[in-house]
Fold each of these.
Amino acid sequence: MPTLLQTIAQARPLIAKARAGGATVGFVPTMGALHSGHAALMQSCRRECELAVASIFVNPTQFAPTEDLERYPRTLESDLEICRQAGVDLVFHPTPREMYPNGLASTFVETPAFSSILEGAVRPGHFRGVATVVLKLFAIIQPDVAYFGQKDFQQLVVIQRMVDDLRLPVEIRAHPTAREADGLALSSRNRYLNAHERSSAPALYQSLVRARAAVQAGLKNGDRVRQILRETLESTAGVVTEYAEVVDDRTLEPLDNLEGRSAIALVAARLGSTRLIDNLYLRE
């Protein structure tokens, strides 16, 4: 079983000792409720770094008052077993007080270019909470490499921009989205879906695949691609579309013409009380 660390005072000396011995420190930040997508990140970390560190912390500052902070699953025992199987050495599992000793409304970091679009528009303050907690975790763990899944694509862009702007000495490595056999992106929130909602949930991936096929067949018009995404989502029972967008993969700028651009499609939808997101590259 990996060593469980609950305080910064416990974590820093162990990591510093490993680094002094020449170890490359790899880091996988999570909110727990782990699944095989998280395990794939940890396995990559294990293969590529001498010290594999994961965090399990349900970050309160990235949840809006109307969101599911209290409902979010806490499954520490099974999470630790997944970490063990993936070969993680250390698991950092702090309390909110340990991470926010002066309260939740103290110092924060934000990437304004991405704060009010797509997920930022639907979840005001979300990316401020994400960027702040990731920066705190980077300051505590001081990783050489950090691993994130592509499923949360806008989060990945936000973190990479923060790292670039603040000149942080950490390499960000993205891992492809892990999926169920029917294409549904793995997510800790999938467990909230009832049987009917679960049968409709692959529509997100189906919309992305159809859009990609159209682009690969020669379609370049961004609005027509958005229409394909929405038509697929809105023709599926129980799916309520929040957004269906086609953007540049670095700037998240909406694209009217995909010619010569690295384009990615991003979708978000609700099924009952559960909110799901997904994405797929259309042109790379």
Note: The first strand starts at residue 3 and ends at 5.
Amino acid sequence: MAKPGYRLALFATLLTVVVVVLGAYTRLTHAGLGCPDWPGCYGFLGVPMSEHKQALAEMRFPEAPVEVAKGWYEMVHRYFAGSLGLVILALAVHALRRRGEPGQPLKLPLLLLGLVILQGAFGMWTVTLKLWPQVVTAHLLGGFATLSLLFLLTLRLSGAARALASFSVHLRRLAALGLLLVIGQIALGGWVSSNYAAVACVDLPTCHGEWWPAMDFANGFHLTQHIGPNYLGGQLDSDARTAIHMTHRLGAVALTLVLLLLAWQLRRAGLPRLAGLLLLALGVQIALGISNVVFHLPLLVAVAHNAGGALLLLTMVLINYRVSAAVTSASRATVEQAAIVPLPCK
């Protein structure tokens, strides 16, 4: 039976999916600086629409001419993100009021509240630091972390049965490895996007017609470079962007092999539905990634690729939740069984 707060947590999870997709759309339409200030837009609560307001906006920010469409992309994303923050605040208040009740998580809602506050700061720094790649990537990872933790909270409040058959510790470790690799691949994807390296290679399976093209890893992954005046469009040269793109490709290959092995192990362990869901999410993400290269990064496909990453991440959270719960339940059962076994008489 679902616990109080389940529907609110589920709503927050779905709202986070919308926020993540809107964030991807904003980034991919180069609207990250559609409003040059934060939290408003050119000093207004919304995008300036009248001629008077636009003239005032351009006087305030002469280096950033008003682009109405890009401004609205950015502001709609902020409106939804702000609404999500209020919902997470409600979840935290609900958890505090019901603390001590059986099955009511407290640390997780409070962690989410802290995370969404940090996300607000990253949103501000994304604008004030002019799309600095480190901040943009961290902001993206924070969004995916918020999504995965909200989904975990939803699972914990769902009241779904957690007792499963006993699984090996090897399966739990493989699932954890898969989750870590998915997070790493999402981080690489964010680094590709924030450095505008998605079209650094326009052919498959080679890049520039070579299996190992010229690449500059030192500059491509120089994480401590100084903050530049504006990163819109990127500042790296071709070899550095190629290095980022190829690293993302190689990461995708490694991740695919691990997740295929995990799907096989899940099927052997008697979880064919989870295995099928994993293969579906993986297959969709691979197809979208290939389409981005073949069709030269069409907007809808690129946005769908971000959504596919979210789906794959949630799938891995679900798998780890089920498998770890099963191992924990099995371990407790073993301890309880050992406790009631009578000792032999001397």
Note: The longest helix spans residues 299-340.
